[in-house]
Amino acid sequence: MMILKFNRDIFYAKRDAEGEVIVVLDGKRDDRRLKIETHYARSLKKYDIHEVIVTDESDVELGGEVNKIGYICFFEVSQGGHIILGDGLYIAGDLIGRVVGFDDIHMPNHMNIIVQSQDRRSAKERGIMLGDKVSIGFIRGNS
Questions:
Q1: C-alpha–C-alpha distance, residues 36 and 63, integer Å
Q2: Is the pTM of this model over 0.85?
């Protein structure tokens, strides 16, 4: 595993990346073998499309691997922004989880954004719908 020092404090203020769900996914896997990139931050450009995947694994590390996943959605970015490890990923105002990594296996088509949560249910199981708003940024309130 790669050990990388990451200081969130350098990101004093930043704009959330926002978008809209364009594909609702359903399914889980215990053997996905996602390769977590060594990036601690990514910029999301307006009109790009990315995938959201949730994991309940608690030991995710940069350069490591994630196997236990639930499929959430593909979303189109409507407002570009900068996202970093630890940011909250919200869909329809609900906190889905915290960003723990990025997987670039499908680039340049799309990036997988990996979020950690104790809830590995798919988007269909959560009631997520086409057109739901997606927001990724600093954790809000008491979440």
A1: 5
A2: yes
User: Residue holding tokens 């959560």?
Assistant: 126
Per-residue pLDDT of the chain (143 residues; tens, 9 = 90+): 444 567 778 888 999 999 999 999 999 999 999 999 999 999 999 999 999 999 999 999 999 999 999 999 999 999 999 999 999 999 999 999 999 999 998 989 999 999 999 999 999 999 999 999 999 999 887 55
